[in-house]
Amino acid sequence: MSLKTSTSPEDGPVTTESGLDADLIARRDALIDTIRSYGRVAVAYSGGVDSAVVARAAYEALGDAAIAVTAVSESLASGELEEAQALAKRIGIRHRAIHTKEFADPNYLRNNPDRCYFCKSELYGRLSSLMDQFEVDAIASGANLDDRGDHRPGMRAAGEKGVRHPLQECGLGKADVRALAQSWGLPVWDKPAAPCLSSRIAYGEEVSPERVRMVDQAESWLRARGLRLLRVRYHKGDMARVEVAPEEFPKLTSDPVRSELTAAFRGFGFKFVALDLDGFRSGSLNDLIPLEQLLKPRATGG
Length: 302
What we know:
By secondary structure, this protein is an alpha/beta fold. Helices cover about 40% and strands about 10% of the residues. It is built from 13 helices and seven strands. It has helices at about 20-35, 50-60, 80-90, 105-110, 115-130, 130-135, 155-160, 165-170, 175-185, 210-225, 250-255, 255-270, 290-295, and strands at about 40-45, 65-70, 95-100, 140, 230-235, 240-245, 270-275. The strands form two sheets. A four-stranded parallel sheet has the order 3-2-1-4, with helices on both faces. Helix 2 (about 50-60) crosses helix 9 and helix 10 (about 210-225) runs antiparallel to helix 12. It starts with about 20 loop residues before the first helix and ends in an 8-residue tail after the last helix.
């Protein structure tokens, strides 16, 4: 599928559909109709490409009867709330930020492989309790079709709260979502996935505000030096495992950047810094989950 970059004013929704084939246009229209069928909708909205497309479709379907809601806690990376707010304004959808308290849950802090279940239980529980205040009938997530094949225990929490997944219901995978985002002029159409900071902490190592702050500072330091696709993983003993694209390795291993990096990371609280020679790969900490836990019956996606 050929894609063309569209331009638009800084505010207001974009309606360009250049580059979309007939099948994707039909599924885009089905997405809008599906969300309209929910009634008034609150979108669980991080500002990433998936939730942004759901928010854009919800605004198209419902106008002011749709609202985008962003969860704010210690696990939200620096700058993400501000970017989400700006994008919601560009789309035109109403936006609210709510503070979630997953860090008060010992089950979440324990950081077992089902940590995300407790996070999403807190988020969707909070959203459910605010449905009357927000004047909505349903909650919609940004889970796409490709998410079904990953380890995502948060989908069980979504099912318990009756959360809808319109991208999955309309058969839209990650590539489709990015194409729709680009056709709608959403600047996040090619933004790398940005899961919560707690997902950087190796399973079994307790999640804490201090540790996620260390990760946030380290990733911000790398982004300030032009790196875009990256993760800093926290491992036992205050070790940072840095993942970047292999072609970016020379940027980090040559002085003076190498020395500056190690000094900066130690200042953030890390005692050791390692560069992962496999390079960046999303969800690499899932490789540490014992096989017997992955084989247990569970919901997927999300």
